[in-house]
Write a structure and sequence with these properties.
Elements: E1 14-16, E2 19-21, H1 30-47, H2 63-91, H3 94-130, H4 135-138, H5 148-174, H6 178-197, H7 205-219, H8 227-238, H9 240-254, H10 276-299, H11 302-312, H12 314-322, H13 329-359, H14 376-381, H15 385-405, H16 414-449, H17 458-463
Antiparallel strand pairs: 1-2
Helix pairs in contact: 2-5, 3-5, 3-9, 3-16, 5-6, 7-8, 8-10, 9-10, 10-11, 10-12, 12-13, 13-15, 15-16
């Protein structure tokens, strides 16, 4: 077992690198038997000119092969869901098919749109990570915050779970299993809620806590407003339709109207004429309005009052539209409809003006696309004039079409409303880049202008840190 002076002449010794391996064939010690079983393959391998055995991790498939296999499985799953969903819809009679699709669309439309926004947020983080914009500093995050890869993992699971539940709903309903079909959206909503509020240290606990705490700060702006607070609140204004559909879906679940025809009556408690629809639609704008007033209280900047005025212009758009179901048709046509059109125009143009002149820094437009390692995307977007014209024109057009979504009397065109909502989320997606770039420019300029005597010491940074995980 121990090396002896004459061991170097033994035919049963081999070197692994610079270490000698000894095997005594004349002993029956189990430890030596194990050693013998390990040495002999090495001896035979060297005699045949073979290489040493590779570690177990080295025999795994290549990352590219695994990625291709996952993509194939994902596409196969998507095809199966589409095939089952299509066959289920075709089983329905033609007169009930539209109503059947409209109901299924209502329950799953909010979560599908949330999934889309999570995907877009992951893309935004990837763009930030490629350039010089320190988004962790902008949002006050620590080094353990979620990266774009973590966000994409969440979005992949959401992309799998939500359409799978929707496919199960379509299949069960079309095959007569109404009670089982009705349970699918209910279970999905309960599962999403439990994941968000789960108190144990799994599923990114610190990130979920940060999100829930920020939502609480948005709903009750009793404290100074930070950049993450009004940044997320602005995104929520683009998802007002999501909140409205969530309210209607939960209402039908509570009143046990899922997979029934009870809700077809427009004047029912969960019908399309419900007063809860405009109330929920206006909540994100009221939250943002209260944030602006809180900012004025803290900073005394008049610009915050004009920003509050911008969000207040969405209120008449929402409530004038809802009046169609509560006034006589003649009064709607002669009085309230022209007022609705005028308020929509004011809201769209005011919001567009504020985007271009306040939220974005036009002096360094598209600087955010200057990647540390330039690639085709960076070369396509950075410093190109067409980006400037595209963002300005598309923002103006989509600001005008967005009022369509805020109008309760147009909700029956659910596919059109869904398309407009998707376009608004894409508008908000491109807004994110230039809003974050503008904030980063402010931070860098203020840091250059800060005198050395006012620069905080390292120990003060550590003691005063308020970083969070996202």
């Amino acid at each position: 077992m121990f090396e002896s002076p004459g061991a170097s002449h033994s035919p049963h010794l081999r070197k692994l690198g610079n270490r000698a391996v000894v095997s005594d064939l004349g002993t029956s010690d189990p430890a030596n038997n194990v050693q013998e079983g390990y040495v002999f393959p090495l001896v035979l391998g060297e005699m045949k000119g073979a290489s040493l055995p590779l570690p177990s991790a080295a025999i795994l498939p290549s990352p590219i092969l695994l990625w291709r296999f996952k993509v194939i499985l994902f596409l196969l799953w998507g095809f199966i869901c589409c095939k089952i969903g299509w066959d289920s819809v075709m089983r329905m009679s033609a007169d009930l098919r539209d109503l059947f699709l409209y109901e299924a669309f209502l329950y799953y439309n909010p979560l599908l749109l949330v999934t889309m926004m999570v995907w877009l947020w992951g893309v935004s983080l990837w763009v930030f990570s490629q350039g010089s914009v320190n988004y962790a500093k902008i949002f006050d995050l620590d080094q353990n915050h979620l990266t774009h890869k973590d966000i994409w993992k969440c979005s992949i699971w959401m992309t799998i779970i939500v359409p799978t539940s929707m496919t199960a709903y379509l299949y069960l309903y079309s095959h007569g299993e109404v009670s089982l079909a009705a349970s699918q959206p209910v279970f999905l909503y309960i599962a999403v809620t439990l994941v968000l509020i789960f108190p144990f240290d799994i599923f990114y606990l610190s990130s979920r806590y940060f999100l829930l705490r920020t939502l609480w700060r948005i709903a009750l702006p009793l404290q100074p407003i930070t950049f993450p607070d009004f940044f997320l609140a602005d995104i929520l204004t683009s998802m007002a339709k999501v909140f409205s559909d969530l309210e209607r879906s939960v209402c039908r679940m509570v009143h046990r109207q899922v997979a029934t025809i009870a809700w077809f009556e427009a004047d029912s408690v969960c019908g399309s004429h419900s007063v809860a629809i405009p109330l929920v639609l206006v909540f994100p704008y009221i939250w943002r309005l209260m944030q602006c007033l809180r900012q004025y209280k803290d900073t005394k900047e008049k610009a915050t009052l004009f920003n509050a005025l911008k969000y207040s212009t969405a209120v008449p758009v929402i409530f004038l539209s809802a009046l169609k179901y509560h006034v006589l048709p003649d009064r709607w046509t002669s009085i309230y409809r022209p007022l609705w059109l005028l308020s929509s125009l004011v809201n769209s143009l005011y919001s567009f003006y504020w985007d271009v002149t306040r939220d974005w820094d036009m002096s360094g437009f598209s600087r955010i696309f200057k990647f540390n390692k330039p690639n085709d995307l960076s070369n396509l977007l950075y410093g190109q004039k067409w980006v400037f014209f595209w963002v300005i024109s598309s923002n103006l057009i989509l600001r005008c079409t967005w009022t369509y979504k805020l109008s309760a009397h147009l909700r029956h065109n659910y596919l059109t409303v869904f398309t407009v909502t998707v376009l608004e989320m894409l508008r908000r997606f491109q807004w994110i880049f230039f809003r974050v770039e503008n904030e980063w420019n402010k931070i860098t300029k203020s840091s250059f202008q800060l005198p050395m005597s006012e620069m905080p010491r390292e120990d003060e940074k550590l003691l005063g840190s308020t970083n969070h995980n996202v």
